[in-house]
Write a structure and sequence with these properties.
The complex is a heterodimer. Chain A is of the alpha+beta class. Chain A has one domain (about 20-155). Chain A is about 20% helix and about 20% strand. Chain A contains five helices and eight strands. In chain A, the strands form two sheets. Chain A has a six-stranded antiparallel sheet with strand order 6-7-4-1-5-8. Chain A has a two-stranded antiparallel sheet with strand order 2-3. The longest helix of chain A has 14 residues, at about 130-145. The radius of gyration of chain A is 16 Å and the shape is globular. Chain B is of the alpha+beta class. Chain B has one domain. Chain B has five helices and eight strands, in the order E-E-E-H-H-E-E-E-E-E-H-H-H. Chain B has helices at about 35-50, 65-80, 145-155, 155-160, 165-180, and strands at about 10, 30, 35, 85-90, 95-100, 105-115, 115-125, 130-135. In chain B, strand 5 and strand 6 form a beta hairpin. The longest helix of chain B has 16 residues, at about 65-80. The chains are: A alpha+beta, B alpha+beta. Chains A and B meet through helix 2 and helix 5 of A and strand 4 of B.
């Protein structure tokens, strides 16, 4: 268990045995439909993850996978997207910090070390020095933590545009 | 080795040559009657049609120079005799990833980040991923007929199986498609 707690929200600290949820769009870049498994890009920060990778605590007091999808802002996620769950203990085993922050759903947290601001940081030589570390973390979550990672809701293919 | 089921991936010719590159040597593969090269081609065409916010989650648009680079990479890989990639897909930041999944559970990705500029990533099942800059395909002329080299690597007479006449048909079709490969590069 962690001593992390929210200075602004009246929520209990995140326990190691809790599952953290992240929704993702129905897209081949995020999910391999043939294998029914996510790609590492699910854990690459999106524009909305500017300060940290957005996830939500699973549970009756927080949010369910179904509810998380229902509250998604974009239609691709809401109608066709998927939800993956990762065990808190596994995230912490990578020395990542879970921080309770206000969000669209109760139990919203961010993983500070995986954030879009760092991803977009451009060096004077034109390279993106932080991207490699973030890629490695995302890849590790998907490949190393397979037993501590579960697909709660598999995405469904989007209908082709006419 | 070899097979006739339309629903299974199979190969019918031995590697033509070895290279020091980690991509696996080329085979003619069919999945549901479509070669893997055809699939990669179709995936890249689909990516070329994407607009901004293509994933509905704020994704960046795919820049035309990345499509051209990906096309060159695929032609280069095929000409070198490499196995066709399993997948070609866009990333939320607008890059294009070409992915090979190897039998040893290693995933190799080349992420095209700019014109003739790529990052090669090896993802292992038991250790951290490794990265290296990769742009070996950059010297390929985009006007080069792609199957001059690829045909040399995989001549129909060498690869067609007498037990599988359909394979020959499909390969011929693939070559026809490839000769029209990505006119947007012109």
């Amino acid at each position: 268990m962690s001593s992390e707690s929210s200075p602004v929200l009246d929520e209990p600290p995140v326990e190691d045995h809790e599952w953290l949820l992240r929704h993702f769009p129905s897209d081949p870049s995020e999910y391999e439909f043939a294998k029914k498994f996510i790609r590492y890009s699910v854990f690459i920060p999106r524009k909305s993850d500017d300060k940290g990778l957005s996830m939500s605590r699973e549970g009756a007091a927080f949010v369910t996978a179904e509810r998380l999808l229902a509250t998604a802002r974009n239609l691709n996620v809401k109608q066709y997207g998927g939800v993956v769950a990762v065990l808190t203990e596994a995230i912490r085993s990578l020395n990542l910090t879970i921080e309770i922050t206000p969000g669209d759903t109760p139990g919203h947290i961010i993983i500070r070390q995986i954030n879009r601001d760092d991803w977009d940081l451009k060096a004077t030589d034109g390279t993106y020095p932080k991207q490699q570390a973030i890629r490695e973390l995302a890849d590790t979550i998907v490949r190393f933590l397979k037993t501590q990672l579960q697909i709660r809701i598999h995405p469904t293919p989007r209908p082709a545009k006419k | 080795m070899g097979g006739t089921s339309m629903n299974r991936t199979f190969s019918t010719c031995e590697p033509r040559f070895d290279t020091d590159a980690p991509l696996r040597p080329s085979f003619v593969e069919l999945t549901a009657g479509v070669t893997m090269w055809e699939k990669a081609h179709d995936q890249l065409l689909s990516i070329a049609r994407l607009e901004a916010d293509w994933d509905g989650d704020g994704a960046d648009p795919i820049r035309p120079e990345l499509i051209r680079s990906a096309s060159k990479l695929l032609r280069w890989a095929r000409a070198q005799g490499y196995k066709a990639p399993q997948d070609v897909y866009p990333m939320p930041d607008g890059c294009i990833t070409v992915e090979w999944q190897r039998p040893d559970d290693v995933i190799e990705r080349i992420e095209i980040q700019g014109a003739d500029k790529g990052l090669r990533m090896f993802s292992y099942p038991d250790r951290p991923a490794t990265f290296e800059p990769f742009n070996k395909w950059a010297t390929v002329s985009r006007f080069q007929p792609p199957l001059v080299a690829a045909g040399a690597a995989l001549p129909p007479t060498a690869c067609a199986s007498p037990k599988s006449p359909r394979l020959h048909t499909r390969q011929t079709k693939a070559e026809t498609v490839d000769c029209e490969w990505f006119p947007l590069a012109a």
